[in-house]
Structure formats: structure tokens, C-alpha cells
Design brief:
about 300 residues, alpha+beta, four-stranded mixed β-sheet, 18 strands
């Protein structure tokens, strides 16, 4: 189905004839502005909009996905083809407005006699009259039904975005046209990554030997894994950027841009409990010069932390 990306209802614009309607009366298509409107408006009342929530995974965000959504909604009555007339018979011309859909009234105002045109109260502007109502929909032209809609969700969507599918909402009375379907995106909860726009953040906890000696580590991606090298002497709070391993971006027109990055935040695990042999090893290490926190090493660490928070 055709859709606009990230919808929301647009507010109604300023109507220059509103000030005249306040004097010459008539809401719902009547009043002064009715002289300037055409006669080709839909005969029935347009159906209401529907809003549904759809959950997506991070893999769906990366690659896009097609969801099959089953919706209970008003559909055109199959017995009268949405007309509201028994067996779908032809509608008669409304006797009150003679098929015009509007009636003309005269009223006295402070400016003298004025002529206004309002929607016909009998046919509600359709110009048609139902002689015998359809028993299945009581003349409304719509019944409650169910429809499965295939929704293509593009890559790069984010939690809270909304997709607009025109004419997939509730059917309107007496063939008045369908409303729209709003699909609200909801990301499934996951605890591996933190998402910031199209950037993913992953926390990697190293054991002390690997941080000190270096080595190869493996981390998860949205799908699959990725191996990379840890340099000897890697410090806690080091950040490693894996370019292009994040999520695709998506602009307001539904077009995909370049992928974001995956940022790896590195921490170093300090054991909470040690046995006697482990305590002895660490006690012996304290006497070696490279394990001593000399003033020069402390200054180096302080400068690094200062730089990190200033970026």
C-alpha cells in the first residue's frame, strides 16, 4: 500500500470565509463559502482513521521488514455494495433538495435579507434518498469486518515514528471513502545495545590480563558477530569506533542514508573475591615498577580523563 513516512494529522488552514459564515450561518459546508464550493464532493461521510502499534526488532531496523497486520475495521457492506439501499438498488433523488445536496434559506440579518445555502438535513449532502434500507447494515452502507494488510516498514525506522497508509482505515458511510491507517513503530526491548539515532553503543568488559596483554575479542552485532584486536595496555573507558556497523538512517521521505557506527565502550573487570594464591600473585605484582601508580602515571591518567569529559 502507498504510504507517507512519519505521518501526523495536519492542522486545518485558515478559512477566509469563516468571518462571513459567522454572520450568514451554517456549519458543515453551508454559509457564505458554500457558494464557492463544487458539487463533486463525495456523497457519503468519509471513514475514520485507525491507529495500530507494530513492534520491530533491531534486525528489522537494519534490513526493513514486511508485517502482516490483521485489523478489525468497518468495511463496505457486501449486501448493498456500500450504498445502504436494499440489495444494492439505485438510490432515488432526494425530494427535499431535488438532488442538489443543499438547500437555500433566506434569513434576515443586520444587513438586510440574506440568502444562505446549507447541507440538506435529509440526505446529508449526498443528493440521494434510500427508499428501502439494507437490513444487514441498517442503511449505513458499512459493517464491522476484518482485513489483513501487508505493511512494508523501511529500514532505519525508530521508536515513535509513524507510517501513514492512505485509504486503509475504516470505510465511510454510503460510499464516502476510507479513512487512513496510522502505523506507530515500537522497538522491541533488548539489553545488548544502547541506541542513539543510528549509532549503537556496546559495553565490553575485559578481564585484566587481556586489557594488559592485548588479544582478540568477539562482540555481537545486530546479526552475527565481529572480531577485532585489543591493544596491549588498553585502559578502562576506552572507546573503539567500528565504522558502518550501526543502523541505517531514514529521512522524512523514507529514503535510506549511510549507516551509523558501533561504539564499543571498554571496561576492565576487577574481581570481587580472591583466593589465597590469587592474592599472593597480586601482592607480588605490586612490587614491580610497571604496576606502581607513580605520580607521573597518575598525571597521565588525570589528563586522559579530563580530555574524555571535554570532548
Amino acid at each position: 500500500p502507498g504510504m507517507g513516512v512519519f505521518g501526523g494529522g495536519a492542522g486545518a488552514g485558515f478559512n477566509p470565509f469563516d468571518i462571513f459564515n459567522s454572520f450568514f450561518g451554517g456549519g458543515g459546508g453551508g454559509g457564505f463559502s458554500s457558494f464557492f464550493s463544487g458539487d463533486d464532493e463525495p456523497a457519503g461521510q468519509r471513514g475514520s482513521n485507525i491507529r495500530v502499534r507494530v513492534k520491530v526488532s533491531l534486525a528489522d531496523v537494519v534490513y526493513g521488514v514486511e508485517k502482516h497486520i490483521k485489523i478489525k475495521k468497518y468495511v463496505a457492506c457486501p449486501h448493498c455494495n456500500g450504498t445502504g439501499a436494499k440489495d444494492g438498488t439505485e438510490l432515488e433523488r432526494c425530494p427535499k433538495c431535488q438532488g442538489r445536496g443543499r438547500i437555500v434559506k433566506q434569513m434576515r440579518t443586520i444587513f438586510g435579507m440574506a440568502q444562505t445555502e446549507t447541507v440538506c438535513p435529509d440526505c446529508h449532502g449526498s443528493g440521494k434518498h434510500i427508499k428501502t434500507r439494507c437490513q444487514h447494515c441498517n442503511g449505513e452502507g458499512i459493517v464491522m469486518g476484518e482485513e489483513t494488510i501487508d505493511v512494508k516498514i523501511p529500514a532505519g525506522v525508530a521508536d515513535g515514528m509513524q507510517l501513514n497508509l492512505n485509504n486503509y482505515g475504516n470505510a465511510g458511510r454510503h460510499g464516502g471513502g476510507n479513512g487512513d491507517l496510522y502505523v506507530l513503530i515500537e522497538e522491541e526491548k533488548q539489553d545488548q545495545f544502547i541506541r542513539q539515532d543510528n549509532t549503537l553503543i556496546y559495553s565490553l568488559l575485559l578481564d585484566f590480563p587481556t586489557a594488559a596483554l592485548g588479544g582478540e575479542v568477539e562482540i555481537p552485532l545486530v546479526e552475527g558477530t565481529h572480531k577485532f584486536k585489543i591493544e596491549p595496555g588498553t585502559q578502562p573507558n576506552t572507546q573503539i569506533k567500528l565504522q558502518g556497523k550501526g543502523l541505517p538512517s531514514l529521512d522524512r521521505y523514507g529514503r535510506n542514508g549511510s549507516k551509523g557506527d558501533l561504539i564499543v565502550n571498554i571496561g576492565v573487570y576487577v574481581p570481587e573475591k580472591l583466593d589465597d594464591s590469587e592474592k599472593k600473585i597480586l601482592t607480588d605484582l605490586k612490587s614491580h615498577k610497571n604496576f606502581s601508580t607513580t605520580p607521573s602515571l597518575f598525571d597521565k591518567f588525570r589528563q586522559k580523563v579530563k580530555k574524555m569529559f571535554s570532548e
